[in-house]
Design brief:
Blueprint: H1 6-18, H2 23-36, H3 42-51, H4 56-63, H5 74-84
Length: 87
């Protein structure tokens, strides 16, 4: 959205992070988004926005390392997984 302010964009992504299709992803992405989407670069925010459109079951499998992560998402999924696992 071209007219979306950075603050509104982050709020929108936080809301989408907490309102997923499966509860596990609500908790994983919601906590990650609350921890600080504002620290991500604009490019990583773009990727995070893309990830929010991915299937929750695939996302869960990627974060839990049960399915190979697409290369373009690898760095961000690693960061999400580290946050989720407390590392």
């Amino acid at each position: 959205m071209m007219d979306e302010t950075p603050e509104n964009r982050i709020k929108r992504m936080q809301m989408r992070s907490w309102r997923r299709g499966i509860k596990e992803m609500d908790l994983i992405l919601g906590a990650y988004s609350d921890a600080g989407l504002g620290r991500l670069s604009p490019e990583m925010l773009d990727l995070y926005d893309e990830i929010l459109s991915e299937n929750d079951h695939d996302l869960y499998m990627w974060v839990s390392r049960k399915l190979a992560v697409p290369d373009r998402f690898a760095e961000l999924i690693d960061d999400i997984a580290r946050h989720h696992h407390g590392r």
